Amino acid sequence: MKRLPKAALLTIFLFALLCSPAFAQPKAPGKPAARPASTSAEAALPKPVFNISRFKGPIGKRYVLKDGMILLVKEERSLPMVTISMIIRAGSVMEPYRKAGLAHLTAALLTKGAAGMGAMDISGKIDFIGASLGVGGSTDYAVAHLTVLKKDLNTGFSLLSKVLIQPTFAQSEIDRTKKDIKAGILREEQSPSYVAQKAYQKMVFGGESPYGRPVEGTAASLDAITRDDIVAFHNDFYAPNNCIMAVVGDITPAEAKGLVDKYMAGWKQKKIPKPIIPAPPKMALRRKYINRDVTQATILMGHVGVARENPDYYKLYVMNYILGGGGFVSRILNTIRDNMGLAYDAYSYFDARKYSGTYTVGMQTKNDTAKEAMKETLKIIKNMKAAEVSDKELSDAKNFIYGSFARKMDTDSKMADLLAQVEFYKLGINYFEMYYNGIKNVTKEDVLKVAREYLHPDKMDIVVVGNMKAAGIK
User: Where are the strands (E) in 105-209, listed by range?
Assistant: First the structure.
């Protein structure tokens, strides 16, 4: 297997982070799996236990620095290491439609040359001290990530500051990186899952919305991006008052502030442009069938969902866990796969981002069962809107959500990313307690209410990638 570039790995890690209960995201389409002998192998596992006492109080110390940067610090003395996660509000929501991929490209280029150093110089210095440094771009923001031994913290932080503040953007690196991204797009186009997701996002949000197009852009949009575009984008959005820095590990707040003062003193505040995001098309039952000579169909069904700051988020999370987010214990997988044998994998999720989101149901099935699987899934969603869930469903969902939450912050790296995310989405410095109480207070009445308000099975966009002749779809 070829090793992915560090920026690509970082981007993948970023989306993996978003799979946490705090930031529900799509689960990757799975391969065919053996049907469990019992009703649910997962249900037989010991229930994870959530210890609320561990998560009382602030999740870290929060400071607004004189340059406008938000600094969050959490001391963890178990290892002589420090992890820094920085969110820069410079995602594809900030780029022009005709320059799609500009934000992603800019982020990818930051470690390819800075302050007189080339890409090999930067990677060589990082490797020499056994650290990791990467920058990646997503829809809502760019993220920079540094993990380094405490004794090498000054060296690592100096390199981080240089790639953020003094990137070179050499034309040779721009050309090489564009070529790599376009090759990646070409490879992805061979994947039914990628093709389905790309078509689905466009249907839900429209092609001109940053939420409706691939973050990496297209071959044509990349060709339209010039070095001047990249320099201007960096100048517009990479500024301290547009950043959140989360620091976790063997470090005090005073030390963290000292590093910023020492290595980022020349980084000046700027007036940051606001994103312009087109409104999504009106919900409707739209269909797109993409014919591919494959043995199974990939199906995505859904519509516009909610932004992460929606006050009903916790109710929606519990509701969706019962409906399709809880794996083997969810209604969709239990019915579609286990009871009816219609799909290899079936799930649902709310992808709640900064300005909007989607509600999505996904599945993989044999071509000749695609129509029946879709029909039965819509029935399950309608039933979710028809009556309250059972006491056991509600209790099981809460218990699993509580227990699994701790696993999302069991390393300094995960904690740093989570701290930055909490600040970005304005979830509050007492987020852990808010999260616990948000889940704890959900009632059966709440679940039914949000199901009726936010699920629209009669207005779902549907994308199918498969053998349409075998599926009997015209």
Answer: 113-114, 117-118, 132-137, 142-149
